[in-house]
Each structure stands twice: as structure tokens, then as C-alpha cells.
Write a structure and sequence with these properties.
The chain has helices at residues 31-37, 90-99, 195-201, and strands at 5-8, 15-18, 24-28, 42-48, 52-54, 61-65, 71-75, 81-82, 84-87, 107-112, 124-126, 169-172, 179-182, 188-192, 206-212, 216-220, 225-229, 237-241, 250-252, 257-261, 275-277, 293-295. By secondary structure, the protein is mostly beta strands. The radius of gyration is 18 Å and the shape is globular.
Length: 302
């Protein structure tokens, strides 16, 4: 029997496994993925129904209908993205015609690669037309403005770009319940590859912007925020919307800073991520080709 590839959310309450290889694996740069992950992109492995199983209770799994084609799932305790079902992928239909007995079924699971220790390299980058202004795409895989043609998936119109009359950079969660603004210039934005960020953001790496504690003001929905602190961590805490599970800014009184998941921003912050930290812990399937400085462990000084 094949060894299974196991995945888990940050808090470990939700676990799953799949056998064999994903039939497709994409880095998705769409605005919805940016918001749900709070990052520059989400990486999704596509797995047939008969390859996938939950290995824990799904009692803490919560769902959010993000478009007429997609209902996304997350862990309601820690905010990690967890696998969800999709349908209509042409590659899936072809592959199951070849191999499996239930060949009328082209349903599949989408599992977030950041929640797996091992994964093959992604096939391509999709929805690169939505790529964030603060992010340069890494890796040499093909880039598509929507889904790759061979997937058979239709183009989905992403979130509209909202231009608001505001002097500040604004951000919001995917469902729109939580809105905030950044009232100071960013000190810095960086990419973090530590395992907590990979599992918490459920993707290759986090992209975090930093301002002072007072530099983030919530405009609406602050009461919708939930926090999860990793029990054995000194600081590591995720903040997310309880409706849609998008990662949201964390105001850290102890350190006097606010940490902003860059994927939540609606406006161009006018800076780019400047470096990569904890690259010794980088996902094996990810590759950095953007030329930014790489620090094997933490930042040299804060
Ligand atoms: Zn969890
Ligand atoms: Zn996406
Ligand atoms: Zn929300």
C-alpha cells in the first residue's frame, strides 16, 4: 500500500491524508486566495475523492461560500485553511476515466499544500493577473491569467478592485465583515517560511507587514475576530475572521507592533516585501527566485 501524505491545521485538531500524487497542483494568486491565506498566493493540490480521507473529527471545520463555484473550509479554532471539495476539473475527469471505477465522478478535493510537510512541485501559477503589487512571483513554472486551459475550468472573475476615497491603505477580510486601515507608513514587509507560518497561513510562506501598535485601526467587525496562540510559542498568534476565516492584522500590545497579513490589503501599500526569513524551514516544494535577501533563520536584528 502506498504511504499516505498527511496534512494538518496549525492547532492540529483537523488532520487528513491522501494516497498517491495530486492530479494537479497550482499556486493561485487570485484575490480570494490572498485574503483567505493573508498571503501572496495559495498553493492547492487537487486530489481524487478516492485518494482522500479525513483522519480526525471535522467538528471544528467551518465553511465559507466564496463564489458560486467554491465553498472553502477552515479550522474554526486556528484559522488554517483545510481541504474542501470542488467539481468540474477536466483533468480530474480524464484521470478517473483512466484509473478508477467511479469514472462518472469528477469531484475532487483541494488540499492546501502549506499544511503538508511533503508535496511535489506546483505545475503552474494561476490568476497571475491578480498578483499583488507588493509581491514578485518566484519559480519558473508557467504563468496563466486564469486557470490553465487544460483544466477545463472556466475563468472566474475575481474580487473587484475597490478604490475608496481614503488617505490610508485599507484592508478587509473576504466576507467584508472586518475592515481596517493602516494609518502609518509600513516599517517593513517580509516573507516568513517558518513552519508555524506555513501551517497557519496554509501556504508556502507568510507575507507580513509591520507598523506600530497604533498603526492599525479596525473600522468594522473587530468583534468578529478570533485569536489562536500556538501554546508553546512566545508570540505566534493568528487572528482571523470568524465568518470567512481570512487572516487579519494582529495588534500585539506586548511588542508594541501590529502585524498585517499582506494578502488582506485592498490598496497598494507602496512597499514590497524586502526579504525572506527562516528559509532553512522552507517548504520542499517551494523555490525562491525573486532575488530578495534570504535569512536562514530569524531576521538579523529587529
Ligand atoms: Zn486548527
Ligand atoms: Zn485562488
Ligand atoms: Zn470575514
Amino acid at each position: 500500500m502506498n504511504e499516505e501524505n498527511t496534512g494538518r491545521c496549525l492547532c492540529g485538531k483537523v488532520t487528513w491524508a491522501f494516497s498517491g500524487e495530486p492530479f494537479a497542483l497550482y499556486n493561485c494568486h487570485c484575490r480570494m486566495c490572498q485574503k483567505i491565506h493573508g498571503a501572496a498566493f495559495g498553493t492547492y493540490s487537487f486530489i481524487h475523492d478516492n485518494q482522500f480521507r479525513w483522519t480526525s473529527s471535522t467538528d471544528t471545520v467551518t465553511h465559507y461560500v466564496s463564489s458560486n463555484r467554491l465553498t472553502r473550509s477552515s479550522c474554526s479554532v486556528c484559522g488554517s485553511v483545510v481541504p474542501f471539495r470542488g467539481s468540474g476539473h477536466a483533468k480530474s475527469a480524464r484521470a478517473s476515466n483512466d484509473g478508477s471505477t467511479d469514472n462518472t465522478d469528477n469531484n475532487y478535493w483541494c488540499a492546501p499544500a502549506g499544511c503538508h510537510d511533503t508535496m511535489r512541485k506546483p505545475d503552474c501559477n494561476i490568476f497571475v493577473s491578480d498578483n499583488a503589487p507588493w509581491h514578485k512571483i518566484s519559480g519558473n513554472q508557467p504563468q496563466h491569467d486564469a486557470y490553465p486551459p487544460e483544466s477545463g475550468n472556466p475563468g472566474v472573475k475575481g474580487l473587484p478592485t475597490v478604490t475608496r476615497p481614503d488617505q490610508f491603505v485599507r484592508g478587509s477580510c473576504l466576507c467584508g465583515d472586518v475592515e481596517f486601515r493602516v494609518t502609518e507608513p509600513f516599517k517593513l514587509a517580509r516573507n516568513c517560511h517558518c513552519s508555524r507560518c506555513r501551517y497557519g497561513r496554509s501556504t508556502a510562506h507568510a507575507c507580513n507587514g509591520f507598523v506600530s501598535y497604533d498603526g492599525v485601526e479596525f473600522i468594522s467587525g473587530e468583534n468578529k475576530l478570533r485569536e489562536f496562540k500556538v501554546p508553546d510559542a512566545q508570540f505566534f498568534t493568528q487572528v482571523f475572521c470568524t465568518t470567512c476565516s481570512s487572516l487579519m492584522p494582529r495588534k500585539d500590545a506586548g511588542r508594541g507592533i501590529s502585524v498585517i497579513p499582506m494578502g488582506s490589503l485592498d490598496d497598494d501599500p507602496g512597499i514590497q516585501t524586502s526579504d525572506h526569513i527562516f528559509t532553512n524551514h522552507m517548504a520542499g516544494w517551494h523555490e525562491i527566485t525573486d532575488g530578495l535577501v534570504q535569512h536562514p533563520e530569524g531576521p538579523p536584528s529587529v
